[in-house]
């Protein structure tokens, strides 16, 4: 695509020298697992997110699962989450042996519909998983009223705030992803668990290391889910630039808002009151979305869809017994959403070209 959905090359160019220097040190010491740089990144990211504890893991899905397991979630339990999310949120619940219980989203933001949560709760509910979608926080404070543990899916919202509080500290424990395309992305997979609880942090640290507090001691059954030292070097270099990159994303989102304000048939994203988003994605809604997407691709515009199929309509979760129409807002949103190119380095000229192609596509 002439204008990609995300430009990882532009971001790499800014950190290439620093990463090369850091990798050279790792290669010299050969501390590929659990090196000093991992601990340094955990401390820096915890400080950035304003929480006392960060535990890095192998990927974002593991982060959700280990956060749930640290809370004691397992077979026979239920966890409430939105149908409008990437499948990993539900997948992590299922991997603990618990059952994902889905609720609908709010049309204008795509975030979890708090009014639907009360009816979904049962005596078996062990946790609620709000998803901070597209870079803005879900209304976690409203979910607190239910008196259940809150596990934040913060994979798309590194640096976002709600009422002045960074995501990761809004609930009891949070999970994030360092997949390359995230606002803070590694050069491969990676993830982290954030929490204010020393006990939950200790539990996740134990679980990620084969359930082992010391070599060859295994008091509990654990997992092998650790962040490589080489990835910690990349993430540390990018973390030092993340606030500036997020601010550049906000500027680009504001430019889109202005350019698209008077375009018929285009529904613009809405920011929930109290949120300072980081615009991981800029998601609009248009009729005849698939035709519009095809037209943009033909024009060299790297648009995308996040996400085309709600969780309840995927084959992976057919056993939940849902049918089309069960979550009508999520289904309607899934048929119209369209992600436009957005990355810190996107230029005004590029955005103007995207909008011109979009205007032509929607007719």
Average per-residue pLDDT, rounded, comes to 98
Percent in strands? 5-15%
Q: Fraction of residues in helices?
A: 25-40%
CATH class of the largest domain: Alpha Beta
Largest sheet at a glance? 4 strands, mixed
Which structural class fits the helix and strand makeup? alpha/beta
CATH fold-level name of the largest domain: Aspartate Aminotransferase, domain 2
Distance between the termini: 22 Å
CATH evolutionary superfamily of the largest domain: Type I PLP-dependent aspartate aminotransferase-like (Major domain)
- Total helix count? 11
Overall geometry: globular
Please tally the β strands and state the result. Answer: 12
Given as residue ranges, the uncertain stretches (5+ residues, pLDDT < 50) are none
Give me the Rg, rounded. 20 Å
**Cross-sheet strand order for the largest sheet:** 1-9-8-5
CATH architecture of the largest domain: 3-Layer(aba) Sandwich
Order of helices and strands: HHEHEHEHEHEEEEEHHEEHHEH
Q: What's the domain count? A: 2
């Amino acid at each position: 695509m002439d204008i990609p959905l995300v430009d990882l090359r532009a971001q790499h160019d800014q950190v290439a020298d620093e990463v090369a220097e850091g990798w050279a040190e790792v290669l010299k010491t050969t501390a590929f697992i659990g090196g000093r740089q991992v601990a340094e990144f955990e401390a820096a990211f915890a400080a950035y997110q304003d929480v006392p504890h960060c535990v890095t893991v192998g990927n974002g899905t593991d982060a959700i699962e280990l956060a749930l397991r640290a809370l004691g979630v397992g077979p026979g339990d239920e966890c409430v989450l939105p149908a409008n999310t990437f499948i990993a949120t539900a997948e992590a619940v299922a991997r603990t042996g618990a059952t994902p219980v889905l609720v609908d989203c709010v049309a204008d933001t795509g975030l979890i519909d708090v009014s639907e949560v009360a009816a979904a709760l049962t005596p078996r509910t062990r946790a609620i998983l709000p998803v901070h979608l597209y870079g803005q926080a879900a209304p976690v404070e409203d979910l607190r009223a239910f008196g259940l543990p809150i596990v934040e899916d913060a994979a798309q919202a590194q640096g976002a705030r709600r009422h002045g509080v960074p995501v990761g500290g809004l609930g009891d424990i949070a999970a994030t992803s360092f997949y390359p395309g995230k606002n803070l992305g590694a050069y491969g997979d990676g993830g982290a668990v954030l929490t204010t609880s020393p006990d939950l942090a200790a539990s996740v640290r134990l679980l990620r290391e084969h359930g082992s507090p010391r070599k060859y001691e295994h008091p509990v059954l654990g997992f092998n889910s650790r962040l490589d030292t080489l990835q910690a070097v990349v993430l540390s270099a990018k973390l030092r630039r993340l606030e500036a990159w997020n601010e550049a994303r906000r500027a680009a989102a504001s430019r889109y808002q202005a350019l698209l304000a008077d375009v018929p048939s285009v529904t613009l994203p809405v920011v929930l009151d109290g949120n300072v988003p980081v615009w991981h994605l800029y998601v609009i809604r248009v009729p005849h979305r698939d035709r519009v997407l095809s037209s943009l691709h033909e024009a060299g515009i790297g648009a995308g869809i996040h996400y085309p199929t709600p969780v309840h309509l995927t084959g992976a979760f057919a056993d939940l017994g849902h049918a089309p129409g069960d979550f009508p807002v999520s289904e309607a949103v899934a048929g119209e959403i369209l992600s436009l190119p957005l990355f810190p380095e996107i230029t005004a000229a590029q955005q103007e070209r995207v909008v011109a192609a979009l205007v032509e596509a929607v007719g």
